[in-house]
Design brief:
Length: about 190
């Protein structure tokens, strides 16, 4: 099996690859995460994921198998990034309260000049949240480094009423989709 490289700073993505039993090396890439206007949520995350893979190419060999990803939260097709401060987190969580939103992840697998990029969308529905609940969640500190101001793998799970789609996608890496993409590069995780 070729050397597997995760080009990501995300501890959650590292954890998910570990859970999948995939030995990997982590590298960091810095890329411009701006994107052209008019793209759909799925096109935005695939555009950025592909850019991360191309940026990683300078740090790897052509035999290495590189995985990159980009996850964003969208409410009514408007991107919700990481909160700037507690009031920004409060505004985002208030907007999500009692509503559905979409978490999109673009995933790229690259080996040499071969590149495959796909997107996964998961619909997440928040329960109606009181101001006290939102403030209590913000006091945990968990929202401050998360897109959309919540982490479903932590205390943020208490805000979620239901999801439609891949749970792991909401954490930042759609593992089922990644496993089918890796098969196209000769890596069958269950074999």
């Amino acid at each position: 099996m070729p050397k597997l490289i995760l080009a990501s700073k995300s501890p959650r993505r590292r954890e998910l690859l570990d859970r999948m039993g995939l030995a990997h090396t982590v590298i960091s890439v810095d890329t411009d995460e701006h994107f052209p206007d008019g793209l759909s949520p799925e096109d935005v995350v695939t555009y950025i994921s592909k850019g991360k893979a191309l940026a990683a190419a300078a740090q790897v060999t052509p035999e290495d198998l590189v995985i990159t990803a980009d996850t964003m939260v969208f409410l009514d097709d408007k991107k919700l990034g990481k909160p700037k401060n507690e009031e920004d987190a409060f505004a985002m969580l208030s907007a999500l309260s009692g509503r559905g939103h979409t978490v999109c992840t673009g995933v790229t697998v690259m080996q040499g000049s071969r590149l495959l990029t796909e997107a996964e969308a998961t619909h997440v529905y928040f329960a109606p949240l009181s101001e006290d609940t939102i403030r209590a969640y913000i006091r945990t500190g968990e929202p401050m480094d998360k897109a959309g101001s919540y982490g479903i793998q932590g205390m943020g799970a208490l805000l979620v009423e239901k999801i439609d789609g891949d749970f792991f996608n909401v954490m930042g890496l759609p593992v089922r989709r990644l496993s089918t993409m890796l098969k196209q590069f000769g890596v069958d995780i269950l074999s």
